[in-house]
Write a structure and sequence with these properties.
heterodimer, A: 184 residues, alpha+beta, Alpha-Beta Plaits, 2 domains, three-stranded antiparallel sheet, 8 strands, 18% strand, elongated, B: 149 residues, alpha/beta, Rossmann fold, four-stranded parallel sheet
Chain lengths: 184, 149
C-alpha cells in the first residue's frame, strides 16, 4: 500500500510522462540522422557517395553541356545510414537532425537534395575542371609551406604535373596547349 | 451549418488505425508499436487506436516494400477497409522500395498498386514523425468526410 502511495505521489509531482508533441515541443538528439545535405562548396563529384549509398538514393551526372555536374539525393529513398558522410573524402555530405519528414503524396517527388556544381577553367590551360576546395587544398599542402594552395587549386591535374616538372620556373607559352593534347 | 453537420462534426473525432505489414523488416512496426504503447508518445491522445479488423479502420498504415507473396493479401485487406480511408506509407520501403528496390521479389513501390495519401520516410521514422503523419492523415480524413477545410 505504501509503495503504491509513493508511486502516486511521484506521478503527481512529476506530471505526465507523455511528450506534448505535436501539441508542444519535443526533444531532438544533436546527432540524430534526419536528412542528408550536400555542400556544393566541398563536393568534388568523385562519386564515392553514389558507390557506397546503401539505398541507391544518390545520383551524380554531368550536365548536358559539360559545364559542371549535378548531385541529387532522393530523401524518400535515403535510409539515413550515413555511409555518404563516412566515406566522403572532402566532407561534403552531412546529416542534419531535421526529422520532420511526414508529407502528403503530392510532395513526394519534391523532397530531394540537389546541388549543381559548375566547372571552372584551369588558370593555365583553360581546360574545364573542378578546382580543389580551398579548405582541402590547405590541408593537402600543409606539409609544404613553400607551395601556395590558393594558386595550385586552380590548376588542372596535367598543369600541376607540368608545374612540378618545371620546378618553379614559369610556364612556357606553348605549354598552354600541352594538357589539352595530353587529354585528347 | 445544419444541425446534421454540427452533430457529425461533434461526433467524428477518432480515426481508428490499422496496420498492414507488406513484407517489412519489422523496424517500422516496432516504431508503430512504440507510438501506440509507450506513454511518452501515446497516439491515443488523438483518438486513434489500433483495431483488429480492417472493417473498423479509418487510417491504414502500411510498412514494407510489398513483396510478390504479400501483394495480393495487402490488396485484399486494403479493399476491405471502408471509404473514406487514408493510406499512410510508413518508412522508405513502401514509398520507393528503399534498400530492397529493384529486387526480383518486390512488387512495390506501393503507390503503383494503391493510392497513398501521406508518406513518412525514414528507416525507420521517429515515433514523433509517425505522430506527425497520423495528425496529417487525420486532417486529410476530416477533409474526405467534408468536415474540415
Amino acid at each position: 500500500m505504501s509503495s503504491f502511495l509513493k508511486v502516486l505521489f511521484r506521478n503527481v509531482l512529476n506530471g505526465p510522462s507523455t511528450d506534448p508533441f505535436p501539441l508542444g515541443e519535443t526533444f531532438t538528439p544533436d546527432r540524430l540522422r534526419g536528412k542528408v545535405l550536400i555542400d556544393p562548396e566541398l563536393c568534388m563529384g568523385c562519386g564515392t557517395c553514389k558507390e557506397v549509398c546503401t539505398a541507391g538514393a544518390i545520383d551524380l551526372s554531368e550536365l548536358a553541356d559539360g559545364s559542371g555536374f549535378r548531385i541529387t539525393v532522393w530523401q524518400n529513398s535515403c535510409c539515413l545510414c550515413a555511409s555518404c558522410r563516412h566515406y566522403c573524402p572532402t566532407g561534403a555530405a552531412s546529416l542534419i537532425p531535421d526529422w520532420h519528414a511526414a508529407h502528403p503524396e503530392e510532395d513526394k517527388y519534391v523532397r530531394i537534395e540537389q546541388q549543381t556544381v559548375k566547372y571552372e577553367p584551369c588558370s593555365n590551360c583553360g581546360t574545364l575542371m573542378r578546382p580543389i576546395p580551398a579548405k582541402l587544398a590547405r590541408k593537402l599542402y600543409a606539409s609544404s609551406p613553400e607551395l601556395d594552395p590558393e594558386q595550385l587549386r586552380h590548376l588542372c591535374p596535367a598543369c600541376r604535373r607540368l608545374r612540378d616538372a618545371l620546378k618553379g620556373r614559369p610556364f612556357p607559352v606553348a605549354a598552354a596547349k600541352v594538357p589539352a593534347e595530353a587529354q585528347a | 451549418m445544419s444541425i446534421d453537420h454540427l452533430l457529425k462534426k461533434l461526433s467524428v473525432r477518432s480515426p481508428w488505425l490499422f496496420r498492414i505489414n507488406a513484407g517489412s523488416c519489422n523496424g517500422c512496426d516496432v516504431e508503430l508499436a512504440t507510438t501506440a504503447c509507450i506513454p511518452r508518445y501515446d497516439v491515443e491522445r488523438f483518438g486513434c487506436r489500433y483495431c483488429g479488423s480492417p472493417r473498423h479502420a479509418d487510417v491504414v498504415l502500411i510498412t514494407g516494400p510489398v513483396t510478390t507473396k504479400v501483394r495480393d493479401r495487402v490488396l485484399t485487406v486494403w479493399n476491405e477497409i471502408p471509404e473514406p480511408k487514408v493510406t499512410v506509407a510508413v518508412g522508405i520501403c513502401p514509398i520507393s522500395g528503399g534498400v530492397f528496390r529493384d529486387s526480383y521479389s518486390i512488387d512495390g513501390p506501393l503507390d503503383r498498386l494503391i493510392p497513398i495519401d501521406v508518406n513518412v520516410p525514414g528507416c525507420p521514422p521517429r515515433p514523433q514523425a509517425i505522430l506527425e503523419a497520423v495528425v496529417l492523415a487525420r486532417s486529410i480524413w476530416m477533409k474526405k468526410l467534408g468536415l474540415e477545410g
